[in-house]
Amino acid sequence: MKKSIFLLTLVGFLATQAYATPTKTRKTKAPKENMEQQLAKYVSYPDALKPTQRAGVVVIQFRVNSANELCQLEVFSKNDQINNALLRQLTGKKLTGYGSDANELHTVRLRFQPE
């Protein structure tokens, strides 16, 4: 008797779960564009590289505050003109989808190609 009640309960439970639909769907908060694509919209080819028409790579580090703005921005380049130009172009700009953890340090390489 116990076995049949247990078996009937198990079948009922499995049947209920098979037809159940979740009330809340999970959606990831992934940004539509990745970080590099968003930063590329704000950055132009540096004036310091225009006379030589060279390509270049510059590494930047920053944090994104709760308002999705870039803060604590650092540019790692030997050229002060490039550093200052990138600081002016990027300070206070917004990145969507990355402002959840203000303590996370982001490091990005920016590649410049002559126009």
Automatic annotation (TrEMBL):
Keywords attached to this entry: Signal
Domain of life according to the entry: Bacteria
Signal peptide bounds: 1-20
Protein name: TonB C-terminal domain-containing protein
UniProt source species: Spirosoma agri
